[in-house]
Amino acid sequence: MDASNRAADFTGPVVRVLDDDTTEVLHNHHPERIRLNEIDCPEKGQAFDLHAKHAASDLVFGKQVTLRLMVSTSMDARSEM
């Protein structure tokens, strides 16, 4: 990883779990919405969606996480925890 990508990385606490694969992480005193990469979970309204959200919350809520910017050639670049 080169220095320009490393500058985009940050560490912060997970302050909110929106659903099974989307969280908010505090960065410079502001929540950043983060979608987890390569996580296949039921969408809202599908069977077991609340179970998946609770499982994600148990794993990450209140914990320090490090996010690394993923560079993608598609229009759908995301952050990875």
Can you describe this structure?
The chain has 81 residues and is an alpha+beta fold. It has helices at residues 3-6, 49-60; strands at 10-19, 22-27, 30-35, 64-69, 79-80. It has one domain: OB fold (Dihydrolipoamide Acetyltransferase, E2P). The chain has a five-stranded antiparallel sheet with strand order 3-2-1-4-5, covered by helices on one side. The chain is globular and about 35 Å long. Mean pLDDT is 81; it is low at 1-5.
Strand composition percent:
35-45%
What is the total number of structural domains? 1
Mean pLDDT: 81
CATH architecture: Beta Barrel
Would you state the CATH class? Mainly Beta
User: What letter string, H or E per element, gives the SSE order?
Assistant: HEEEHEE
Shape: globular
Total count of helical runs of at least 4 residues: 2
What is the terminal separation in angstroms? 16 Å
| Total strands | 5
Using the CA coordinates, give the radius of gyration: 13 Å
CATH topology: OB fold (Dihydrolipoamide Acetyltransferase, E2P)
Largest sheet, in brief, is: 5 strands, antiparallel
Fraction of residues in H or I helices? 10-25%
Widest sheet, order of strands: 3-2-1-4-5
Structural class: alpha+beta
Low-confidence stretches: 1-5
